[in-house]
UniProtKB/TrEMBL annotation, chain B:
Lineage: Bacteria, Pseudomonadati, Calditrichota, Calditrichia, Calditrichales
InterPro entries reported in the protein's UniProt record: GatZ_KbaZ_carbometab (IPR050303), PTS_IID_man (IPR004704)
Organism: Caldithrix abyssi
Protein name, per record: PTS system mannose/fructose/sorbose family transporter subunit IID
Sequence intervals crossing the membrane: 40-56, 149-167, 197-214, 220-238, 245-263
Keyword RNA-binding belongs to the record: no
Domain of life, per lineage: Bacteria
Pfam family, one: EIID-AGA
Length: 229, 266
């Protein structure tokens, strides 16, 4: 539990980069999964899962005021669960991948909803700032209001990651008892379906004949090289 | 003599280089207080605070009124908001010098919302980010060693943040220099080169990814090939239809499981 809390604090802070500060995009799954791998010592598994999830979130566009799935935080939760359980139940590999991805989707939805809550909370903070700014005798500093907003976002991130890890672990513990490992082979298409889904979603955002032609040419070129090899 | 005095007064209202840097650094927090009422206005006001401090040093009422004005409503792409920040700094200096009215500035600010949002969303969220991270995923796919992967991450960080920081810094200085006239450069044509370069990179990387991951030859791996194609088509179709991301993500996976069920493997 202390490990989960430690990781929640670290990644709660890093995930502020997603929407609220800097936006250098270091909270994207490729970065966070590599960091999780380096911290926990399971680099290979973390990087594998992170790259798969990154592919899924490539087409996630935070346009205007739209509420989008909180893919980055959800990916942190998914990666931590994936490496933790992959180390214990290696014989359940495909099943674990499937459940971890569904958990990522679920927590991305929860994250999106919490973002709406945070936006209303910020509105309340701004109203307080506007009220203070009616004063005429003393300059009002906006820094404390920004800090209050950021603290709120950070706390929400930490709570989401922590509860995500703990509830996901609880669910996986139950599932591993119920689902026999012999069924693992039947989930083997999950990986290929995930890669296909990620590529398909990108095709969806690059929707034009010209773009499809370029993608097609690159793909065919690689297939020819593979055939020749 | 009178003109010289006016000029000196005007010169005194110009913002220092240090304050400009401070505004630029504060703009990194522009989305910190994002809300439905003012959108990015709280971050925008926070970024402009050094200017208010300079212009209304000994007048708390004017200082507070300045911030209250900027807490009203404003929205833009977080990176492209720098163009607005620079231009508003220039206009605020002119307001303090009595050259421009507050209403004019408000109209100008409202006129910037559309172009800044559209440009940034199209360029960064629609092209640069998917392209750079597609490159990253491809790099991770091709190189297994963690040292190579860390190099790819560094490259990724530079590839993404080079245009990001360029827009932030250049946008602020250009906005400050041009004032009202900054609207003229806020057209996609002026960013065509960046867009094309990153678009090419993205499409190429996605194509290579598809080629590398396609189960091949199809007659040896027919089920895998079928699932791969069905997943691509379903996800692309759902995305084009603007279905919710959750559906576009889960439905192809469920179809894959269903296909296995139908073919009798489960």
């Amino acid at each position: 539990m202390s490990d989960s809390l430690f990781l929640s604090i670290i990644f709660g802070l890093i995930c502020l980069d997603q929407r609220y500060i800097f936006q250098f995009n270091i909270s994207q799954p490729l970065f966070t999964s590599t960091l999780i791998g380096l911290i926990t010592g399971h680099t290979q598994e973390a990087v594998y899962f992170g790259a798969l999830v990154q592919l899924l979130w490539l087409s996630n566009l935070p346009i205007g005021a739209s509420v989008i799935p909180d893919g980055n935080i959800a990916s942190v939760i998914g990666t931590i669960l994936y490496i933790k359980y992959n180390a214990i139940f290696a014989e359940h590999g495909y099943f674990l991948l499937l459940i971890s991805i569904f958990l990522v989707v679920l927590f991305s939805y929860v994250g999106g909803q919490l973002d709406i809550f945070a936006r209303y909370r910020n509105e309340h903070i701004m109203n307080r700032a506007l009220k203070s700014l009616r004063r005429e005798n003393k300059k009002v500093r906006l820094g404390p209001y920004i800090l209050a907003s950021l603290t709120g976002h950070f706390i929400i991130n930490v709570i989401l990651i922590f509860t995500g890890i703990e509830s996901g672990a609880w669910l996986l513990d139950i599932l591993y008892l119920k689902v026999p490992s012999v069924l693992n082979i039947h989930w083997r298409f999950v990986e290929i379906a995930l890669i296909g889904t990620g590529i398909g979603m990108i095709l969806g955002i690059y929707h034009s004949k010209k773009n499809y032609t370029l993608i097609g040419v690159a793909a065919v070129l690689i297939l020819i090289i593979r055939m020749a090899a | 003599m009178k003109q010289t005095e006016q000029e000196r007064e005007h010169m005194e209202k110009r913002i220092s280089f240090g304050a400009k840097v401070s505004i630029l650094l504060r703009s990194l927090f522009i989305q910190a207080g994002w809300n439905y009422k003012g959108m990015i206005s709280m971050g925008f006001g926070f970024a402009l605070a050094p200017l208010a401090r300079m212009l209304y040093k000994n007048d708390p009422a004017a200082y507070n009124a300045f911030l209250r004005r900027h807490l009203g409503f404003f929205n833009a792409h977080p990176y492209f908001a720098s163009y607005a920040l620079g231009a508003i700094v220039r206009l605020e200096e002119d307001i303090a010098a009595g050259k421009v009215s507050v209403d004019q500035e408000e109209h100008f600010k409202n006129a910037l919302i559309g172009p800044l949002g559209a440009l940034g969303d199209q360029l960064f969220w629609g092209v640069i980010r998917p392209a750079v991270f597609a490159f990253g995923v491809l790099g991770y796919y091709l190189y297994d060693d963690i040292k190579d992967q860390l190099t790819i991450l560094l490259l990724l960080f530079i590839l993404y943040n080079l245009p990001h920081l360029y827009i932030r810094i250049h946008g602020f200085w250009r906005g400050y220099r041009d004032g009202y006239k900054v609207c003229r450069i806020l057209k996609m044509e002026n960013f065509r080169f960046i867009k094309r370069a990153y678009m090419g990179l993205g499409l190429f990387c996605v194509g290579i990814l598809a080629g590398l991951n396609a189960p091949f030859p199809p007659h040896v791996l027919p089920m895998e090939f079928l699932i791969f194609i069905v997943s691509i088509v379903t996800a692309a179709y759902l995305k084009v239809l603007k279905a919710r991301t959750y559906f576009a993500m889960t439905i192809p996976i469920l179809i894959a499981l269903l296909l296995e069920l139908i073919t009798g493997n489960l």
